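Appendix B. Chain record.
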Amino acid sequence: MKDRGKFKWVFLHPKYWLLWLVLGVFWLVIQLPYFILLRLGHVLGLLMYRFAHERRHIAQRNLELCFPQWTEQERTRVLKENFISSGIAFFEMGMSWWWCQKRLAKLLVIDGLEHLQAAQQQGQGVILMAAHFTTLEIGGALLGQLHTIDGMYRAHKNLVFDYVQHRGRERHNKDAVAIEREDVRTMLRHLRAGRAVWYAPDQDYGFKQSVFVPLFDVPAATVTATSKFAQLGRAVVIPMSQTRLANGKGYQMKIEPAWQDFPGASVEADCLRINQWLEQVIQAQPEQYLWAHRRFKTRPKGEARLY
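Structure tokens predicted for this chain:
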């Protein structure tokens, strides 16, 4: 909540000194020109591709499951590009936390902001439905300069890192609030008050909160919370996605019109609709999606594990 963004003297305890030093060096690096940060991210991504064996295996398996029609060479190319994209995302995180707003704003091209603005003018709560692309952090920072977006947030165990992360995410709009992921009541209260809340329904949270519907023709445990939040929060669902443009040209953000007839006839139909949308936005930029997540970890009863 808001007090997480406040400095506390306990942060100066000696056990945090090394972290402060690392963050200080990172802050200095982040001041470099954008094209240099992209190159550094490229190198970091290649190093992760070389040494992060478990993460590479998970991403490779996901690509095999979702794109069986691709050749092995195509999947290897996208896999390597995906790690490069993840390496760049590390520096984009620092940019979103510490670059001045004017410098960041120069990188954004946005389409569809009027859909968010129209909902705000009508006092309508919005579930800003997104996906876990590697550009997630900087996308939130860029949009936060133009519109108040409350984000779902998981507190970090390290108090200093949590403070820096929380402060960095809220600084682009002083009215924005980072809502802890388990704090459903606060999320619903914000939606009913006509606010926009960022939410990504594309990860595996197990049997309890999910139904099985296809994602790239693979049965995937898909959370039903989007439907419930929309109904209980009296909110509309507005999909959004962002893309890192080639050759250092910045970022393209697309905000789509609010979905009609959502929630629909059943949560299964809603989840299928969500997954079909996810397929579209992922296929448009597969190298920038977060493939290292075990998306198909939970299996229907009697089905073998996929990882």
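Further analysis of this model is presented in Appendix C.
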